[in-house]
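Hi, can you check this record?
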Amino acid sequence: MNKHLTIIIPSYKSKKLVLSHLKIFNNKYKVIVIENSYDKSLKKIIRDNYNNVDVYLKKNIGYGRAINFASKFVKTKFFLVICPDTKIYKNTISNLLKASKKIDKFGMISPTHIKDKNKKNYDLFIEKKQLNGTCMFFNANTFKKIDGFDKNIFLYYEENDFFTKCNNLNLNLYLITNSFYCHMNSNNKKKILESNSSIFDNIEEKNNSYYVGGWHGQWSKFYYQKKYYGFIRALIYCLPNILKNCIQLIPVLFLDYSKAKYKYFKIEGFICSVVGFPSFKRSKFDRK
């Protein structure tokens, strides 16, 4: 088992995808799974078949918070966060590890999307202001020193916030051009109970998760803008889209109730963020 790297997989109703990753990582890396939908059956399968994997069941604490929680149990120098719907290739991890040994100090490094594989890159490391958030490689000590992801953000903009924090602290972000990943698109309309990396039990549960996602998208957008650029600038940045949703809400209500409800959730998320409420909204199907 690799002594330098731990793999963290945040999961939300992603049993099938998580297990497909574990088949690849079995006996190669220590793996920590944070299961945000409290799936006891997934934990049992892993417990019975994988000795190198720790599973923590959570009542949906969010993406960034899940990574923060898992990082407390990392005992290796580095850790790699992989979303369940992210595919990595044969040399992805080994090339990330090699790159990490050549960079003295970094906030995060990440592989290159496979679609960009044939682009001419003359540098092994390319310094960026932002990277992808589906496959992220960290130095564990650096991550802990800067307090990881913002605990106030439940969903969306957690990577933006982390990248901005790294930029402000002069912790460089690097894209590694000989290491590759693919973020799979699972929004197949034929699979009506799937969305991103999640498989839902029924259409109402999927729709509710969609509405809540809209709420957090606007809450986090305003929160992030206010945190780094101030209240007034955040309002100026966010208001045009919110006003557009307000104008569209009533006519859409008679044409497409689901779409109207999504717009309402976005407006409510923005208002809650403006008045200073925490990111409290959750799917009614999440465990309480």
Remarks:
- The two ends are 37 Å apart (CA to CA).
- The first helix runs from residue 15 to 25.
